[in-house]
Design goal:
Strand content: 25-35%
Helix content: 25-40%
Distance between the termini: 29 Å
Shape: globular
Number of helices: 9
Order of helices and strands: EEEHEHEEEHEHEEHHEEEHHH
């Protein structure tokens, strides 16, 4: 699908991430000195803002609670010129929160509260927004309920839109299986790919073909330092990541890659797959270099003029 005027609706979680880190060893589980950052997050928000930075007209379909976090996220997205007409406030609800705590020498632990994502629905307002041409690209977060995912896919069957789904997390990645043949693009990381297939994921043609046999026609699998594998129309591409001098935080890099790839493949002059991958890698690299889940440096001009990929 090509779009003379690409417009995207990102449907999924918007959240606030509370990130605590201490250089002191966590031996007695006592109070210790460290840093605490409040960072906006969520797959829905990340896709919406990344694609807005890349020049697409961008809207968000999600829910927030009647709390300071919901107000904060709404104002932030509006400041980023995101259309928030489908961002609903749930009376008495609690905005999605992630609390991440890490100490020197120990893996991070996370507590999250994302129950409000079950209030994100495909209703008459969403249908009217799409019917009026509010978006011709839809990005779905697998945190959505099965019913909501099904409604979006049913709409896709009878309308000319490009539908992308993100696996989001290993424990919910299999929710994509029943919709695999109908997605225009699917993205996951190696852990999510392993959860879907029940086998260890490898960046090779054999695994790509096995994954495709489940119904996925066009997909991205990221493998961290090993790079990314893309499958489309029976062909497989593998690309190493851009070298980066420092990695500040990995959260959001997968959403950034998907955004860069979508930017390339849905433009009025679609780029070759290899070039779309390079756009995605450029977006991911910039995101790895910031504490935020979306890099403020991302622009279409930046990724178009990124140094040749080595």
């Amino acid at each position: 699908m090509t779009n003379d005027n690409p417009k995207v609706l990102s449907c999924g979680n918007v959240s606030v991430d509370i990130k605590a880190f201490s250089f002191e060893a966590d031996e007695a589980e006592a109070y210790r000195d460290g840093t605490i950052d409040l960072v906006s997050g969520g797959v829905g928000r990340g896709m919406a803002i990344n694609l807005a930075h890349l020049g697409l007209e961008s809207a968000i379909c999600s829910c927030v609670g009647t709390d300071i976090f919901g107000d904060y996220l709404r104002k932030e997205m509006e400041a980023e010129h995101i259309n928030t007409s489908l961002l609903k406030t749930v009376p008495g609800g609690h905005t999605a929160l992630f609390s991440v705590m890490a100490s020197a020498g120990k893996p991070a632990s996370c507590v999250y509260s994302t129950g409000i994502t079950q209030d994100i629905v495909f209703d008459d307002e969403v249908r009217a927004f799409l019917d009026k041409g509010g978006a011709n690209i839809v990005c779905l977060d697998s945190n959505l309920s099965r019913e909501t995912l099904a409604h979006f896919y049913d709409y896709r069957k009878n309308h000319d839109i490009f539908l992308f789904q993100n696996a989001t997390a290993p424990d919910i990645a299999k929710k994509s299986l029943e919709f695999a043949p109908y997605a225009d693009l699917f993205a996951c990381n190696e852990a999510e790919a392993s959860a879907i297939t029940g086998k260890k994921a490898f960046p090779d043609a054999d695994f790509a073909r096995e994954f495709a046999s489940l119904g996925y026609r066009h997909f991205i699998i990221t493998f961290g330092s090993l790079g990314v594998m893309v499958y489309k129309d029976g062909e497989v591409w593998n690309e190493k990541p851009y070298a980066t001098d420092s990695i500040v935080d990995t959260i959001g890099a997968g959403d950034a890659f998907a955004s860069g790839y979508i930017f390339g493949c849905t433009s009025s002059a679609p780029r070759p797959v290899k070039r779309c991958i390079q756009f995605g890698l450029a977006c991911a690299k910039e995101t790895l270099r910031t504490r935020q889940t979306v890099s403020n440096l991302l622009t279409a001009q930046l990724v178009e003029n990124y140094p040749d990929h080595k």
